[in-house]
Amino acid sequence: MTETYQFALKYDGESFRTHEMDARDLAPALIGLCDLVDEANRTLNAGRSRIDIKVRTLRDGSFQIDVTLIQSIVDQTVDLLSGKSVTALIALVTLLGLGRGAYIGLIELIRRLKGLAPRAVKDLGEGKVEILLEDGQALQIHKETLIVYQSRKAREAAHRVVKPLEREGVDTVDILHNTEIIQRVTKDEAKYFEPIFEETRRVTDRHTRLSIQALWFRGDNKWRFMERDSPISATIDDQAFIERILKEDEPFQPSDQLEVVLQQTETTTPQGDLKVEYSVKEVLNHIRVPKQQRLGL
């Protein structure tokens, strides 16, 4: 079984008035496009499909390349544990931003995040996540788009596609489908596509309420909580609170809640992976349910 999708990659600016493009710019850009699609396919489909990329024509007017993607299903077996099937070609190109979709794709995500890691990520379930931008704005995207965004290989490939913008006389790169502009990257935005993966840390504190799911006093000493609808694991750094528990002065039962100062530490690795850790810095209030029933520790 195969699927096909056609789109165009168009470079525009004063340099293309003769309808020519330096091969030293074109070749890396096309290889970058191939690598971007291959990496997304590898990341999302784990070798269960193959995507061939064909350059169909070179058109007059600016410098436009018509591209055809052809997906062949190598393994239709569905993982019975995860229920995950092969990401269809149209879904994959939408996730990359090469096609129109209800959620923003990779190219738009790079522009909106300006190449940086999101300030926070919240799992919404059903394959969706909410990310927080530097300006505090929240965006809902597909989880798979974020996974590709965090791939160093995918980001390096996307950078090669827009790298001609660094040349004098190249102003825009467009992705078109049926003559409609799906994405446009300008010269000023090209810098966002350069993948700079340095380890960074962001630490924020917030006053919140946590529902206790499980207590733990060994190893990493992480407790399991629900914060609203999101499960988290957190260490307890409030030693006075821990001592009250160990002295049995602080009985617990299922569904108890804690009002706390919760510290969130986000670490972005040089590979572009985001790691989020939580710690309870201070327990402000212990809210007990009406019926007492001590949890087994």
Can you describe this structure?
By secondary structure, the chain is α+β, with helices and mostly antiparallel strands. It folds into two domains: 192 residues, no CATH class; 88 residues, OB fold (Dihydrolipoamide Acetyltransferase, E2P) (Beta Barrel). It is built from six helices and 13 strands. Strands 2-3-1-7-8 form a five-stranded antiparallel β-sheet, with helices on one face. Strands 9-10-11-13-12 form a five-stranded mixed beta barrel. Helix 1 runs antiparallel to helix 5. The longest helix has 23 residues. About 2% of the residues have low confidence.
Helix content: 10-25%
Low-confidence stretches: 78-83
Strands of the largest sheet, in order across it?
A: 2-3-1-7-8
Shape: elongated
- Number of alpha- plus pi-helical segments: 6
User: What gap, in angstroms, lies between the N and C termini?
Assistant: 55 Å
Give the secondary structure arrangement, pairings included.
Blueprint: E1 2-12, H1 23-45, E2 49-59, E3 63-73, H2 89-96, H3 106-113, E4 120-125, E5 128-132, E6 138-142, H4 143-149, H5 152-162, E7 172-177, E8 180-186, E9 200-214, E10 222-227, E11 230-236, H6 239-246, E12 257-268, E13 274-287
Parallel strand pairs: 11-13
Antiparallel strand pairs: 1-3, 1-7, 2-3, 4-5, 5-6, 7-8, 9-10, 9-12, 10-11, 12-13
Helix pairs in contact: 1-5
